[in-house]
Amino acid sequence: MNPIGGSERSAGGYDRQMGWTSPEARELFQQFLKYDAERRHRECLRVSEGLQIVPTTEEAREALCALGPEDAERALRQHPGYSSNRKIESVQTMLELFRRALSDLNRAIASFPGLGTPESRSVRESLEHDVSTLVNKELFAALGAAKTLVDYCRRIKDLVSADQIESKKNEVFDPKEHALVMDLRNSVLHQVHSEANWQKVYHGGPPTTHFVIDREEFLADGGLSQAAREYLNQLGPKVDVTELLSAYSQKVEVFYGWLLPQMEAQLPIAVQDYRACRQAIKSHHGRLSYEFLIRTWMNAGVDPYQHLPKYLSSEQLKEMEELPHRSSQQVDYVISCVDSNGVCDENLRKTVYEFFKVGQDG
C-alpha cells in the first residue's frame, strides 16, 4: 500500500490497481486492435498491388500466402482474373442449381396422391393442396434457375466467342421452345401462379405422374410472345410441364456440356494465374493446419496406425500392410491416399514421418 495514497506500481511501471479489465487496459487493447487492423490493411494493399502483374512472381505469391486466410482472400479479390473466374463459377453453380431444382420438381410431382376410396377424399384433397403448393415452389425455383442460367451465360461472352455461343445455341435449342420456357418463367415469377393440375400417364409399365397446365388458361393470363404462342399451340390443349422441362433440360445439358469445356480450353492467362494463386493459398494454409494438428496428436501420444481405418478403404489398408512397417514407402503410400489436394510438401512429409516413427520399428 502506498502511504501517500497513490496506486502501487511495479518496478516496470505496471499499475496493479488498474488490472487487465480496467477502462485503461481496455483502451490500450482497443488501440492495439486499431493499430493491428491498420497494419493488416496496409499489408493487404501492398500484396494486392503485387498481384496486378500477371503472371504473378514467386515473391508475390509468397507474400499472399503469408497473409491470414481472410486477408489473403481480400487481396485475391483484386487479382485481374478474379472477376472472370467468378463469372465461370457462377455459371457452373447455377447449372447445378437448375439440375437440383428440376430433380426436386419431379420428385414433388411424383408425390401427388393416387385415387383412393370416397371415405378418404377429404384427406386426399388436403394432401393434394399441400403437394400443389410444393410443386409450385419447385416450379418457381426451376424456372428461375433456367432464366438466371441464361443471364449468367451472357456475362461470359468475353471468354468464349459470341459468334460461337450463338451458333451452338441455335444448333441445340428450339427458339420457340426456349421462348415458351422463358415466358412460363415470367408468368410464374411476375404475374400469376399456375395451379398444379396433375395426371397419371401410362406407358405400358407403372404409371408416371405429370404436371399439366391448361393451354386456354395459360393464354388467358397473357404475356406470351408470338414465338411462345406458336410453340404452345403445337402442344395441344394441355401443356405437360413435366415433358416440356425434361426436353428443355436435355438441351441445356448438351449446350453447357459444350460451353464449359470450351471455356476451360481457352482460359485467359489471368484466370489461370488467379486459380494458381488461390490453390497456393489453400495448400499453404492446409499445410499449416496439418502441421498444427499432427504436432498436437504427437504431444498427446496418438498412434496414427489405430486411426487409419477411418481414412483408408479396406483395399488401401491391405496394400499398406504389405509394405514394410514404419517405412518411408509405407507412409508415402498413406499420404498418397489421403492427400487428394496435393498439400503435403517435403517439410510436412518429414513431420508425418516423425508422427509414424519411420525407421523406429520394433
Question: In a few lines, what is going on in this structure?
Answer:
The protein has helices at 23-50, 58-66, 69-76, 82-110, 121-154, 162-172, 175-191, 215-221, 226-234, 241-265, 269-299, 314-321, 328-338, 346-356, and strands spanning 197-201, 208-214, 238-240.
Most strands sheet:
3 strands, antiparallel
What is the residue-averaged pLDDT?
86
Q: In which range does the helix fraction lie?
A: 55-70%
Q: How would you write the strand order of the largest sheet?
A: 1-2-3
Strand content: under 5%
Which runs of at least 5 residues are low in confidence (pLDDT < 50)?
Answer: 1-14
What would you say this structure looks like, in words?
By secondary structure, the chain is mainly alpha-helical. The protein is 66% helix and 4% strand. It is built from 14 helices and three strands. A three-stranded antiparallel sheet has the order 1-2-3. Mean pLDDT is 86; it is low at 1-14.
Strand and helix map with partners:
Blueprint: H1 23-50, H2 58-66, H3 69-76, H4 82-110, H5 121-154, H6 162-172, H7 175-191, E1 197-201, E2 208-214, H8 215-221, H9 226-234, E3 238-240, H10 241-265, H11 269-299, H12 314-321, H13 328-338, H14 346-356
Antiparallel strand pairs: 1-2, 2-3
Keywords summarizing the entry:
3-stranded antiparallel sheet; 362 residues; 3 strands
